[in-house]
């Protein structure tokens, strides 16, 4: 039976591919001779291309931000509650672009892509990529689309880091940076979580040093564990307790290592689901990009205020009080650096029980402040 299309949905969307033959020099010192970027667009670009919004995805995201790929699609885009006709990022007003970053596993060139030099998947030969590399490649896509300046670059978590990097790498090409549930760099604790997740993958017997494609296997166990660990950190203790508590699947203890608590069942389901569609090498690359992100080191000799002196955009920074992975204090570091430079910034500290994942949830307070800020952007470009 066909699924209905909601009135506030962007409807059926078709991913597009942009191929680039111009070599891309990467931060690591490597070069990608050519590459593809997969992207989707929603809404209509206006005559002077001033209403374009770039949506940057987080760790496990991709280009499919809103709508469906076909009428029977049960899975909508990952930020469908935020983007669409009449939604806070209103596609009746804005031309919205979502893309899959380099290194991804949803169509853009990444470890599972065929290396033209060998005729085999890149695997272990795919270079490490950074947030700066992604932004550089996004700028080339902007050129391809005829967008000289984004009305806003928007992202949560790792996506917020890309929005920040845009403001420093291409200050003339971004009017607003919308940075949600993000941080100016990872804490030692966050790097530690990422490394434990990577070790789960790297030590999986099916990993084969990243070249598992040729062996016809997938390091499912490692990727599953990595996702389970990550998922715990994306939730708050209160939120997890409220949803699962100490609920048992059956009424009695079994005194075994089988799944007994509902939270165990939930995490294993999430791990299995993720391992079924995501690529282990991409997970490694995305977490390393998080670890390496440190614009103060790159642009400010260790000083974030000095780094952001390059920026010319206006900023919207939002944090969630239950997000212990990227706590509000980390967002306030960004705000302080912006204020130090007398850059326009709006900050929202939002109450939520959803932890780090709150930026993906439909929360009335959160959506109200987003809508108000996007209304302001629209008034500037209309």
Automatic annotation (TrEMBL):
Task: Provide the site residues for: Important for acyl-CoA specificity.
Answer: 325
Q: What is its main location?
A: cytoplasm
* Annotated binding of substrate, by residue: 227, 357
The EC number on file is 2.3.1.46
Q: Where in the cell is it found?
A: Cytoplasm
For whether the record's keyword set contains Transmembrane helix, the answer is no
Q: Name one GO molecular function term.
A: homoserine O-acetyltransferase activity
Q: What pathway, per the record?
A: Amino-acid biosynthesis; L-methionine biosynthesis via de novo pathway; O-succinyl-L-homoserine from L-homoserine: step 1/1
* Domain AB hydrolase-1, residue spans: 52-342
Q: Which domain of life is it from?
A: Bacteria
Instruction: Spell out the catalytic residues.
Output: 157 (nucleophile), 323, 356
Kindly state which reaction or reactions the protein catalyses. L-homoserine + succinyl-CoA = O-succinyl-L-homoserine + CoA
Keywords in alphabetical order, please: Acyltransferase, Amino-acid biosynthesis, Cytoplasm, Methionine biosynthesis, Transferase
Q: What does this protein do?
A: Transfers a succinyl group from succinyl-CoA to L-homoserine, forming succinyl-L-homoserine.
Quaternary context: Homodimer.
- Give the record's family classification: Belongs to the AB hydrolase superfamily. MetX family.
Fetch the NCBIfam families from UniProt. homoserO_Ac_trn, PRK00175.1
Name of the molecule in the record: Homoserine O-succinyltransferase
Q: Which organism is it from?
A: Leeia speluncae
Q: What is the lineage of its organism?
A: Bacteria, Pseudomonadati, Pseudomonadota, Betaproteobacteria, Neisseriales
């Amino acid at each position: 039976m066909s699924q209905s299309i909601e009135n506030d949905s962007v409807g059926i969307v078709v991913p597009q591919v942009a191929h680039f033959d111009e070599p891309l020099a990467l931060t690591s010192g490597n070069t990608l001779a050519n590459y593809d970027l997969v992207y989707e667009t929603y809404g209509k670009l206006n005559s002077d291309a001033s209403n374009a919004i770039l949506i940057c995805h987080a760790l496990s995201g991709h280009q499919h931000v809103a709508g469906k790929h076909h009428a029977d699609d049960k899975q909508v885009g990952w930020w469908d509650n935020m983007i669409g006709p009449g939604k806070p990022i209103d596609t009746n007003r804005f031309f919205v672009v979502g893309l899959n970053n380099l290194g991804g596993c949803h169509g853009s060139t990444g470890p599972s892509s065929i290396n033209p030099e060998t005729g085999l998947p890149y695997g272990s030969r795919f270079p490490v990529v950074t947030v700066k590399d992604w932004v550089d490649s996004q700028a080339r896509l902007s050129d391809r689309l005829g967008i000289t300046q984004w009305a806003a670059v928007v992202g949560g978590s790792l996506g917020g880091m890309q929005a920040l990097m845009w403001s420093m790498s291409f200050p003339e090409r971004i009017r607003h940076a919308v940075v949600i549930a993000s941080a100016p760099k990872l804490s030692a604790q966050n790097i530690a979580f990422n490394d434990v997740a990577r070790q789960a993958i790297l030590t999986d017997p099916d990993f084969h040093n990243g070249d598992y494609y040729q062996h016809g296997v997938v390091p499912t166990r490692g990727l599953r564990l990595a996702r389970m660990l990550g998922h715990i950190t994306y939730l708050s203790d209160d939120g997890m307790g409220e949803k699962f508590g100490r609920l048992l699947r059956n009424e009695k203890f079994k005194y075994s290592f089988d799944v007994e608590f509902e939270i165990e069942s939930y995490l294993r389901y999430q791990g299995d689901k993720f391992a079924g569609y995501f690529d282990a090498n991409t997970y490694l690359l995305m977490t390393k990009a998080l670890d390496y992100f440190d614009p103060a080191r790159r642009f400010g000799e260790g000083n974030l205020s000095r780094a952001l002196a390059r920026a010319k955009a206006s900023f919207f920074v939002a944090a969630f009080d239950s997000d212990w992975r990227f706590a509000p204090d980390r967002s306030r570091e960004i705000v302080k650096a912006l204020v130090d430079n007398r850059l326009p910034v709006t900050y929202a500290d939002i109450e939520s029980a959803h932890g780090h994942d709150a930026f993906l949830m439909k929360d009335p307070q959160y959506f109200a402040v987003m809508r108000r800020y996007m209304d302001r952007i629209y008034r500037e470009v209309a």
